[in-house]
Here is the input.
Amino acid sequence: QTYFFKFIQKARIIYITIILGIVMSSCSKDFLNPNPTDQVSTGDYWQTQDDAVRAVTECYTFLGDFDDRIFLSCATDDSYSWSNWPLDIQFAGNGSATANTGTFDHFWSYFYSAIAQANNVINNIGKVPSNQITDSLRSRLTAEARFIRAYAYQQLTSFYGNVVFTTTLMPSDSFPVTKRTSADTVQQFVI
Here is the structure.
């Protein structure tokens, strides 16, 4: 009986040692600070020509908001909105829209997302090493991002008049919604 208990004690010590060894070897210094797996940081991203092309391609996704834009005519006398589906454009059409009407918020945030993506390209494409991208491709991609940013600003000034004007990336918590630039100034920049 004592032999059995000694065996169990030794087996328990071996078992605990193995478990501790596995646990200790699986931990690393970066265990609590891993890199995000669902996104790429700006420092890691701008390394190749493909990174630049992908970033500009993402800018083009903002040119395809036709599902919502097609209903804008319901705010005019060109067509009639029989309901608020899929947008609450009916309120704009009958004159009861407020600043909180979702249609206005949608286009505001949509075009500022396009501007943010374009500014990301314009401000960071220079980080791609020269041996990874040709000067002509870098210039073309920059021009494409500038065009998309200009288009977004043209749409914003058409919808809202004076708008927030920025050519740099801004964190959303420091976005100066109350500081607006005149539509004329923004349109001159676009031209």
In short: Residues 97 and 139 are 43 Å apart (CA to CA). The two ends are 94 Å apart (CA to CA). The mean pLDDT is 82.
